[in-house]
Amino acid sequence: MPATAIASDALTKYEPVIGLEVHVQLLTATKAFCGCANRFGAEPNTNICPVCLGLPGALPVLNAKAVEFATLAALALNCQVRERSIFARKNYFYPDLPKGYQISQYDRPLAEHGWIEVPAADGGSKKIGITRVHMEEDAGKSLHEGFADSATRTYLDLNRCGTPLIEIVSEPDIRTPDEAFEYLTRLKEILLYTAVSDCNMEEGSLRCDANVSVRPRGQEKFGTKAEVKNVNSFRFIRAALEYEIERQAEVIESGGSVAQETRLWNSNEGRTYSMRSKEQAHDYRYFPEPDLPPLIVTPEFIAGIKAKLPELPEARRKRMIAEYELAEQDAHTLAASREFADRFEAAAKSARNPRRVANVLLNEVGGRLKALGLEQGQSPVSMAGIVLAADLLDEGKISSRQMKQLFDVCFEKGEDFGVVYERERPRQITDAAAIEKLVDEVIAANPRQVEQYRAGKKTMAGFFVGQVMRASHGQANPALLNELVVKKLEG
Ligand code: ADP
Ligand code: ZN
Ligand code: MG
């Protein structure tokens, strides 16, 4: 049964409580505690050394760049950075963790008390608290599939051992699967803006575990939570939470109680399965890492990183709306990526009307790219071409119908807008007398609409413009046409 929207009776009676734990790989050149390359997709077991393999006697040295990136991310997430944090060993046995422990942070994390703003269901916004951002290292990878003898053997790729991570733990402030989706979307945007990670879920550089419980509405005490792992897209996290909320509500409704356990999401079946109960849960026997001194970051260091913070997505959206008079939804789409917003802003500055540039970029070009399943980078139309189209439209040199036809040609032939415009530049009728003649004809043919216009229905002008445009095969100069229609109707 695929997970669908939550049954409404479950939600009227029960309130979901959700907290997310997100692991993010940092884009440093080398690993967290050794000089091995930190690179996805290398030949298995080529980027390894005694330190990241945990061979006896090898000692870790903290990567300063990882501290910089972690601090930058923490500040972007509105956290307070602790001047003195402590690395700890998190002990567990697993074949892809040859050291037998992971270096992490425990009771003295790098940063705490942050928040992310997400849109609220009532149209306003809501702050989701961030409990902590701490540094740790990744483990290797167990490969259970893809080999001839995978049915009987598991292969190990230890390249990922020692990759620097930050873990971002949210407060249990999230109340719906949609809010969880928004939180993750915003979190990813912010991290991409800071460029500390590429946040690629398919490659595992962003991973999320979702904690969820339900409680009867009105009850203050939280219910028992389940932790859902193994979910590899934000959409699936939303679906897994919807499934889990309904499952837990049903357990309680039928007189049972929710078990505290770890569950795995199965995207083919659209459901979660119990993986291990709390009784089998790990006791990680955390203790301070004896091979690393406390991590000290000075107020000067923190101030230096703060100065490197880019303008973040939410602030940028607000500024772009004010500066370019953009529609909220357009600003939202434009600011979703820093590169995209940069490209738009550079173009907008050279155009007559930035709002029109946004329209052409998102609707004409963006719409066609989406329909063809192409990325921005694969567009045949350059930003200069978009500005040209917007300017021509703005000056009334082409009609929006002509612009659409020109863009159709761009995408058919894989040519830029300027090239197509120069070659197929619509022959425009700019002769006022010729247009006037067409206007007269259309007015004569539509007495009822003329009457309506003169009775006060001014929007009828659009009807006449449309009719004349059609009669001119789309070639009447739009600015001139508009002017003449109004003049004739008023006259
Ligand atoms: P654990 O000790 O099981 O790891 P934590 O208290 O560290 O639990 O919390 C882990 C995550 O679970 C956090 O994101 C937190 O917000 C969330 N969380 C804690 N309690 C609940 C609950 N009752 N329901 C839903 N989420 C919860
Ligand atoms: Zn190494
Ligand atoms: Mg925990």
What is the number of independent domains? 3
Bound small-molecule species: adenosine-5'-diphosphate, zinc ion, magnesium ion
Query: How do the strands of the widest beta sheet line up side by side?
Result: 2-6-7-10-1-11-12-13-14
- Radius of gyration, taken over Cα atoms and rounded to an integer in Å: 30 Å
> On the 0-100 scale, what is the average pLDDT?
92
Q: Classify the beta-strand content into a percent band.
A: 15-25%
Largest sheet: 9 strands, mixed
Principal-axis shape: elongated
* Helical residues, percent: 40-55%
Q: In angstroms, what separates the terminal alpha carbons?
A: 67 Å
Give the tally of β-strands.
16
How large is the count of helical segments?
17
Low-pLDDT parts are: none
Class derived from helix and strand content: alpha+beta
How would you describe the overall organization of this protein?
With 491 residues, the protein is of the alpha+beta class. The protein has 3 domains: 301 residues, no CATH class; 112 residues, no CATH class; 59 residues, Arc Repressor Mutant, subunit A (Orthogonal Bundle). 41% of the residues lie in helices and 19% in strands. The protein has 17 helices and 16 strands. The chain has a 9-stranded mixed sheet with strand order 2-6-7-10-1-11-12-13-14. A 3-stranded antiparallel sheet has the order 5-4-15, with no helix packed on it. It has a two-stranded antiparallel sheet with strand order 3-16. A hairpin with a 4-residue loop joins strand 13 and strand 14. The protein is elongated and about 95 Å long. The model has no long low-confidence stretch (mean pLDDT 92). Bound molecules: adenosine-5'-diphosphate, zinc ion and magnesium ion.
